Amino acid sequence: MSQTLDTNVLLYASNDGAPEQERALALLRHLVAGPDLVVLLWPALMGYLRIATHPAVFARPLSHADAVANLDQLMSHPHMRVAGEHERFWSIYQQVTTETPARANGVPDAHLVALMLEHGISTIWSRDRDFLKYPMIQAEDPFSDRYRHGFDRRPPTPKRRR
Q1: Per CATH, which fold does 2-147 belong to?
Q2: pLDDT digits (tens, 9 = 90+) for 106-131
Q3: Which of 20, 56, 111, 136 is deepest in the core (most CB within 10 A)?
Q4: CA atoms of 148 and 156, how far apart (whole Å)
């Protein structure tokens, strides 16, 4: 199973004092430990650089050097790969947006979904509920109650009534 991270998870991990920071850091620690492959997508990484260094978004934005160092550290782990668009991207993007039309702020999400499909990535970790519109991928919210006990194991499946 391969998976990826949305920009918002990376931002929460870097946002000192944010209530989501510890859970984002726990997810990153879990993913870098492996053994599952994590494919980082260039649009999410560039979005992180854009937002983490933006003074209108954060009271204490990261310097460019610090934000780049964060990404370098993440990419240095053996279970991490980085991927972008290849030959099939445009046709996959068109298929994704035919099934679930994208416009305005939905375009970057469709971009990531198309990249996921192009690279065989099944799951995205994101707080963005808009990914739930895409039935061809699995969107996991690491900040939901489902993961309040950590990421080492999935919560037990509820027992069924007989």
Answers
A1: Rossmann fold (3.40.50)
A2: 999 999 999 999 999 999 999 999 99
A3: 111
A4: 13
pLDDT digits (tens, 9 = 90+) for 27-53: 999 999 989 999 999 999 999 999 999
Work out the mean pLDDT of the chain and round it to a whole number. Answer: 92
In angstroms, rounded to a whole number, what is the distance separating the alpha carbons of residues 97 and 30? 32
**CA–CA dist 66, 52 (Å, integer):** 10
- The SS3 call for residue 119 is coil
Which of 113, 134, 125 lies closest to 43, judged by CA?
113
How are strands ordered across the β-sheet holding 80-83?
A: 80-83, 37-41, 2-5, 123-125, 138-140
151 close to 26: Cβ distance less than 8 angstroms: yes
Q: Which helix (H) or strand (E) holds 33?
A: helix 21-33
